[in-house]
Amino acid sequence: MPSPTQKPSLSLLAALSLALAACSGGGAAPAQDPPLAGADIGGPFELVDQHDNTVRWEDFAGRYRMVYFGFTYCPDICPTDVGRMVHGLGRLAKQDPAKADKIVPIFISVDPERDTPEVMGEFAAAFSDKLIGLTGTPEQVKVAADAFRVYYSRGEDTPGGGYLVDHSAVVYLFGPQGEPLATLPVDKGADAVAAELAKWVR
User: Fold this and answer.
1) In the chain, what are the domains?
2) Is the pTM of this model over 0.70?
3) To pair with 80 at 20 to 30 A between CA atoms, which of 52, 169, 172, 183?
């Protein structure tokens, strides 16, 4: 038997530590607030979808919303981001169909001059029949972009008579009451998007 002055063994210390952890409830991590909780992002708008129907922000009440602002003539970043956003939702649908059913992906144009409802329909259909494409008058688009803190500006003309539009490239996730929750990591691919969705959608 060890003397009173002998140091306890490492195995004994480990056992005591485990016992204390069990008594304290297992050390479960506290619930984490969404990164954008309380942020002033999002708000009322009135636009038209690819079927030329009027759509308002409140029409999505009760559903989670993935929101991205871009334009259909974008040569690279927009189709890449939208593709990863939609594919991420598709991967979540395979892992957890119930969660995926609560989410609606939304693409809002910052180029209303060219992005008519018909053009938006062609663009959305190329990615998913679930993707909602929204456009409107320049005034309507500005109201929406301002509410979502999105920057956009017509760039210089390109060869052939076209032009590019500089704009913020962020995919936001909003909750059922329209509250901002998080940004989605489209830069890291569809799997990362699916993981982030699974984290915040209840």
Assistant:
1) 46-200 (3.40.30.10)
2) yes
3) 52
